[in-house]
Design a protein that fits this description.
With about 325 residues, the chain is of the alpha+beta class. The longest helix has 24 residues. The chain is globular, with a radius of gyration of 31 Å. Keywords: Membrane, Transmembrane, Transmembrane helix.
Length: about 325
Amino acid sequence: MLGRTALRSAAQRATAAAHPASRASHHSTAPRRPLGTLAFAAGATAAIVGVAYTLYELKPESFPTVVTPLLAEAASALGPSTQVFIDPTTSTPFPHRLVAPDGKTHLRLVGTGVRTVSFLNIRVYTAAFYVSEPELDAALAGTLAGWEAYAPERLLPSPPSKSTDGGVRGEQLMDTLLEKADAAVIIIPLRNTSLAHLRDGFSRALVARLKNSRVADDLTAASGSEATGAALVDFKSFFPNKNLAKGMPLELYYSAKNRDVTFQLRNEKTRSPDILGTLRDPVLSRELMLSYFSDSAAPSPELVKNVAMGIAREPGSPTAIST
């Protein structure tokens, strides 16, 4: 009996000697990775998760197929034969003609463009620019002051060294149009958003433009800096704390006579217009409209380009189509 026990003990010791790692199998003997490598891996994983979550949140909601509130309004105001222009980038439809909230001013579509953000070029909204018909006809015919011998390059920003015509260009050229013409910017969200988010975007654009030396000089000359500041505060109160669904338009109507901008929504059920408020400060109203044609910070360079092409009646633009 003792002999068997001794043999069994000897066999166990021999096995342990031949496989020393087996007794330490619960404790890793592999060399440890440097902390920097682990931190980099954790950071990369977090970045991938963040991008994936962003894409999940945005979803493929960037392609609305119909904008019924705006189209319904155009049809009721101008008849069921109103034609529709399809934005070539996002397939968003816009009516060729609109009627301003005053019920009298008829506006015609000049161009559309998409707004994108971040290095991922995420599509946020599609915008359309409209101009009152008499002034647009004069600009198209080259009879509007400042728009004679117009070419698309004149509305596009370019370094002064490359300007060969010596005339007014870029946003200054658009300013001459807004001196005489009513206009509208229609924003169609390509994903669900909020009015507060859009309000903050407008506010940042206005604050940035108020720092422009030309605008500052205008305010000084008019002794209107305090009034403009108060108007900016009042403007922020226009926007209730509510969401704006994908495909529901936010409409900005500019009056050249009154130098103001009226903000309008559509009721999701009745499609009737719902005015949020009117920005009555002339400087803020002008600068808000001009911000879409900024020489250095236009929210949609595609919109600027397509409007420039539209005023020249280039093929494929809304003005090249008989409506």
